[in-house]
Input
Amino acid sequence: MATMLKVNDLKVHYGSIQAIKGISFEVNEGEIVTMIGANGAGKSTTMNTVAGLLKPTEGSIEFLGKSLIGIAPHKVVNEGLSLCPEGRRIFQHLTVLENLEMGAYTRTKEEADETLQKVYNLFPRLKERYKQIAGTLSGGEQQMLAMGRALMSRPRLMMLDEPSMGLAPILVDQIFDIIVNMNKAGTTILLVEQNAQMALSVADRAYVLETGNIVNSGSGKDLLSDDSVRRAYLGG
Amino acid sequence: MLTYLINGLSLGSVYAIIALGYTMVYGIAKMLNFAHGDVIMVGGYVAFCSTSYLGLGPIPSTLFAVVVCTVLGIVVERLAYKPLRNATSLAVLITAIGVSYFLQNAALLIWSSNPKSFPNLVGSIPNIVIGELVIPSTAIVTVIANLLIMLTLTMFTGRTKMGKAMRAVSEDKGAAQLMGINVNRTISVTFAIGSGLAAIAGVLLCSAYPTLMPTTGSMPGIKAFTAAVFGGIGSIPGAMLGGILLGVIEIFAKAYISTQLSDAIVFAVLIVVLLVKPTGLLGKKVSEKV
Output
């Protein structure tokens, strides 16, 4: 398996506060990799830094052999890396279809139309509601829209930040099924989650993040049965 | 009575065109570009020079003014506002006021403080006379130009990729960047459109009120800003509605109440509207599901 994303000794500061204290991790082609950790551990900061929204103070980020440091966030998408951000951040006043079109902003019209059909197949609900204003969708539908929108750029690697946040358990199951399906269809996934149980059960590999450091890593299965992980994140 | 209404619609249309510039820039860059009014003045002077000195016809000189103002808008944004993208809104506001003074004083240096008498660029079209009612050609052209601009902008923001990207940026810059949208370029385009519109407004305004001075743009600028807030800032139909209502109210206040008090009445109406509906007449207040 080829290494897709390689992050080395990454450090990120918010002013004088160091949020990420030198973490290294990698994502290989075809994997689902998850990063679990409590609030404030630095999971979203890591995602946002890889996507170019935050500037690291030190360290390297390589995607498909190319350094992403200093590349403007709107150009990172062109490299084949897409972030589905925390809190969904769909465009509330745009329609479902317009949101998806924005996802394909860097693509040609033909590519966008083709991908749109795939996204509709994955999320039939979005097809039913394509004319609806996105802000009026339910929480689960909004999450689907956010994921569909991120898929529209045809990413090689999709980063998902807390896709299960605020969703009912049945919807969480559904979202995770879709994540596995997207992965099977050829998209590599980097998943950040507070729902460690779910995340670890679908992940090939996982990293545990604690106050800006990676404190544990291994296969999803191993970490599910790891004592310290069970105590901290899985409730015994 | 009808004459007043026509004058009001005409003045209101000019306000509406200016207000569109305010509202679009506010919607996307979340800043109040108080130099917008002075771009109108620059547009007026450029059109004045190209007719009086270069001998261009009405349409070429208007187009020339549009081009100059569009470039001016882009340059001002790049030099004055872009470095402040992450600064507090107060810093941006003060800078905008600074740009406004800069443009006025530059105009003072180039064209001096003597008022120039602006040639009526739409005067070649005959007025329409229905019985005793005379509809000035300026009014007709202004209202039609306003409608066309409004339609074009609505189509642009609703149908084109760039237009949709603008709406996306206005809602969430970070998410828009994640889509691959170049936020800086989108903001530049917005300034370009707003300033181009200001040039058209300048030509129309000066055709109706033919005294051109370096401060010509200030008052219409402030009124149009009021119109934008009145209609709901950030909303394109709101700017249109706000502008027209403001123009009509102003003319009627002048005609029936008092010329001196007309501005006070206009602003009083604004205050009342904001008290009743703080987001303006067509302001967005979408309840969001979470």
User: Anything to note?
Assistant: Chain B touches chain A through 22 residues (CB under 8 Å). Residues 2-29 of chain B form the longest helix (28 residues).
